[in-house]
C-alpha cells in the first residue's frame, strides 16, 4: 500500500482565510503531509514583525510539529520547516516530503513562528527566547488522516501573534527642544506594568497560546532593546544617533511581553537617552489609550496588539502617548519629554 503525502494550509488570523482544494484527489496515490496557513496582518522585515497577508513575496517560514499523540510533542512524527506562499489557499509540505501512516491513523499538527530559535518541545510546551527584534506566533493543533488529506481536506494552521509590538515615533516640539536634547541615542523598555520585561515565552502547543501572566516568566534585569525600524538586518537602536525633527518619524520598534490587563497608566516604562540627557536615562511612562477622539484608557490585554508610542521632546521634558491597533495599529500612547 502506498503512503499518503502530508500537506497543510496556513493563514494569519484576521487576514481573511479561505480553504480550497489545490490537488485533484488520486486514489491510492502518495498523499503528502501538507497544510494551508494564514497569519495576522503585519510589515515584513528581517526577523521583525510579520505584517500583511501571506503571499509569494511575503512568505511565512514556520516550524511545523506533527505528533501521533494529541497534546504531546515530546516525541514527534515530524518537526521541520514549511514555507507558506499564500493566505489560506495553497497547500504546502515539508522540503523533504513526509507521509501519513498507511493505517490511516490520526496525526496532530501545530505551528510555530519563527522557524529557528525554539527549544525542544516537552509534552505540550515549547520555549522561545526573544530579544525584541523577533515576532512570535503560534497556530493551535489541528488533526488529520491520510484519507482526509487524500480527499483534499488539508488542515489549516491559523497563526496568532503572542507578543505586543511597540513602535516609537519621535518628534521635537520646536527648535529649542532639538537644541536641548540633541540626537536620540537609546530607547530601552524597563517595565511591563510593574515588572521587569520578560525575554522568553513558553507556548502551549495544542492551544497555540501563551498566557500573559504565566508564560512570560524569564525576567530581564537590564531591560529589552528597541530596534531600528526598516533596517535590512536587525540593528539595535542603541547603536544609533538619530536626529530629532519637528515633523517626527518612526524610529524604532520592539516586540515585547504582553500585559494581561492594561490600565491606561504606566502600562510600559521606557528609559530614553539623548546626546545631551546626561548619564542617567530619562524615565518615560507609557500610558496606553484607545483610538478615536475620546482617547480613553486602554484596559484590555495587549497581546497581538500594535501600539504607536509618540515621544514628544519639549524644552523641559519628554512625554509619550500611545494608541493600540490589532497589528495594524489599534491605539497607542503620546508622551512629552521636557
UniProtKB/TrEMBL annotation:
InterPro entries: Mfa-like_1 (IPR025049), Mfa-like_1_N (IPR042278)
Signal peptide: 1-20
One Pfam assignment: Mfa_like_1
The organism's place on the tree of life at top rank: Bacteria
Keyword line: Signal
Gene3D superfamilies named in the record: Fimbrillin-like
UniProt protein name: Fimbrillin family protein
Amino acid at each position: 500500500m502506498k503512503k499518503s503525502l502530508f500537506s497543510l494550509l496556513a493563514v494569519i488570523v484576521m487576514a481573511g482565510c479561505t480553504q480550497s482544494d489545490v490537488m485533484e484527489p488520486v486514489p491510492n496515490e502518495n498523499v503528502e503531509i501538507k497544510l494551508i496557513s494564514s497569519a495576522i496582518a503585519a510589515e515584513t522585515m528581517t526577523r521583525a514583525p510579520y505584517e500583511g497577508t501571506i503571499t509569494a513575496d511575503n512568505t511565512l517560514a514556520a516550524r511545523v510539529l506533527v505528533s501521533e499523540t494529541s497534546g504531546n510533542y515530546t516525541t514527534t512524527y515530524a518537526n521541520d520547516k514549511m514555507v507558506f506562499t499564500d493566505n489560506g489557499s495553497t497547500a504546502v509540505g515539508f522540503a523533504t516530503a513526509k507521509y501519513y501512516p498507511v493505517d490511516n491513523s490520526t496525526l496532530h499538527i501545530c505551528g510555530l513562528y519563527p522557524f529557528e530559535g525554539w527549544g525542544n518541545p516537552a509534552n505540550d510546551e515549547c520555549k522561545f527566547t526573544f530579544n525584541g527584534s523577533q515576532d512570535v506566533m503560534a497556530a493551535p493543533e489541528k488533526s488529520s488522516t491520510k484519507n482526509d488529506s487524500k480527499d483534499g481536506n488539508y488542515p489549516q494552521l491559523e497563526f496568532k501573534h503572542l507578543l505586543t509590538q511597540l513602535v516609537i515615533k519621535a518628534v521635537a516640539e520646536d527648535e529649542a527642544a532639538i537644541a536641548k536634547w540633541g540626537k536620540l541615542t537609546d530607547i530601552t523598555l524597563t517595565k511591563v506594568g510593574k515588572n521587569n520585561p520578560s525575554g522568553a515565552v513558553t507556548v502551549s502547543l495544542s492551544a497555540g497560546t501563551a498566557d500573559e501572566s504565566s508564560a512570560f516568566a524569564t525576567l530581564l534585569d537590564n531591560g529589552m532593546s528597541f530596534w531600528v525600524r526598516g533596517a535590512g538586518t536587525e540593528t539595535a537602536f542603541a547603536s544609533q544617533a538619530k536626529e530629532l525633527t519637528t515633523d517626527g518619524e518612526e524610529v524604532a520598534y520592539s516586540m515585547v511581553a504582553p500585559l494581561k490587563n492594561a490600565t491606561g497608566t504606566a502600562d510600559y516604562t521606557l528609559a530614553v537617552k539623548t546626546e545631551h540627557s546626561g548619564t542617567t536615562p530619562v524615565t518615560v511612562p507609557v500610558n496606553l489609550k484607545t483610538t478615536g477622539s475620546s482617547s480613553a484608557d486602554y484596559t484590555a490585554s495587549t497581546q497581538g496588539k500594535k501600539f504607536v508610542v509618540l515621544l514628544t521632546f519639549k524644552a523641559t521634558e519628554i512625554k509619550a502617548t500611545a494608541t493600540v491597533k490589532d497589528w495594524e495599529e489599534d491605539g497607542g500612547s503620546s508622551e512629552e519629554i521636557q
